[in-house]
Amino acid sequence: MDDGVDPETLAARKRASVVQVLFRVARRLDALALARVRQATGMPVRPAHTALFPHIDLDGTRLTVIAERAGISKQAVGQLVDDLVAMGALERVPDPADGRARLVRFVGGGSALLHGLSVLGALESDLAGIVGGDALAAMHATLQAVDDALDAGTLTPGEGTG
User: Fold this and answer.
1) What does the pLDDT read at residue 155?
2) Most buried by CB count within 10 Å: which residue of 65, 67, 78, 160?
3) How far apart are alpha carbons 92 and 97 in whole angstroms?
């Protein structure tokens, strides 16, 4: 590198960072899970598609709400929803609270979501075979505690500059 940063030092710092490793592992597990879903279903699902799933309520959610929750444009969400409708994972239905509006919801009460969770369960079994069930359970508890802290607002964007 031209700016004086030693590549070996940089690589060691990346390996030493828990969050950096977590990002890398999350990306790789996501890619593996999606590959397994594509292989099992033939659906051309991408990370952008599954990134919408946590933002869709089981009884349905308006497109504008999904966009707001996901932090992306309504147009981008609309295209992704169109893709998932074509794949048979989502459907658009009338909003019972407003006949002019439509809700986006999972087809079959969430069968696509349930299939995805089954894929994740199989990955977890594979991981337990590699690291051991106790280690995987401890990792789950740790990650759940971090997620809970994030939900509670314990960590904020302005912290951790040191």
Assistant:
1) 85
2) 67
3) 14
Separation of alpha carbons 141 and 156, rounded Å: 21
Region for 94 from its dihedrals, namely left if φ exceeds 0, alpha if ψ lies in -120 to 50, beta otherwise: beta
Below-50 pLDDT ranges, the chain: 1
Helix (H, G, I), strand (E, B) or coil at 159: coil
The pLDDT score that the predictor gives to residue 74 is: 97
Chain centroid, CA 28 distance in Å: 12
AA identity, residue 152: A
CA dist 117 and 111 (Å) reads: 10
pLDDT at residue number 161: 52
Q: Is 72 left (phi over 0), alpha (psi -120 to 50) or beta?
A: beta
Q: How far apart are CA 135 and CA 130, in angstroms?
A: 10
Note the pLDDT of residue 122. 95
For residue range 86-107, list pLDDT tens digits in order: 999 999 999 999 989 999 999 9
If one counts every other C-beta atom within 10 angstroms of the C-beta of residue 113, the result is 19
- Domains for the chain: give ranges and CATH numbers: 43-109 (1.10.10.10)
